[in-house]
Design a protein that fits this description.
Number of helices: 6
Shape: elongated
Mean pLDDT: 90
Number of strands: 0
Largest sheet: none
């Protein structure tokens, strides 16, 4: 925890053990990011009609609308896990020696689009199929923000030339 209280670029000053731990966490996060993309495209769909059918049901695929408890369970799990992952990734990203005008917007985009991702299924299911566009926007924003949040700290963790 002392790492998070230091000023400046503490990523390059951490011990080898801490760098390995952070690196392995970010490898798991990258696997999570990529699997999220594939699950979203293959299970839900990549266009608004497929997304709306997934949540609202559809005669074309003989699918049923998502039930309240199913949406609630998915929201419950994702709210906790995505919040924790974002907390760690944004802390590590904040330690990178980048200017605030780059860091802060990416952090805000990550949290905002993750919140939209949690909200969109409810809006699609109970208000309008048109909110499927919001789901696509949230996925795009998550992709745009999550990869730099993961890859930038990884780069700065291993940028130095000597290993201590």
């Amino acid at each position: 925890m002392n790492d998070f209280t230091q000023k400046g670029n503490w990523l390059k000053q951490t011990s080898l053990e801490i760098r390995v731990i952070y690196t392995l966490f970010m490898v798991f996060a990258l696997v999570g990011h990529l699997s999220f993309i594939f699950i979203s495209i293959y299970r839900i769909g990549a266009n608004p009609a497929e997304i709306a059918n997934h949540y609202r049901g559809g005669a074309d695929e003989m699918s049923f609308p998502k039930e309240f408890m199913e949406l609630l369970e998915v929201t419950h799990f994702h709210a906790y896990i995505e919040g924790i992952v974002l907390l760690v990734l944004t802390h590590l990203f904040s330690a990178a020696p980048l200017v605030r005008r780059i860091k802060l917007p990416l952090i805000v985009i990550a949290f905002l689009t993750t919140f939209l991702d949690l909200s969109a299924p409810w809006l699609i299911r109970y208000l309008s199929a048109d909110f499927a566009y919001l789901q696509i926007v949230s996925w795009m924003g998550m992709a745009i923000s999550y990869f730099p949040l993961t890859l930038v700290p990884l780069y700065y963790l291993w940028k130095r030339t000597t290993i201590s």
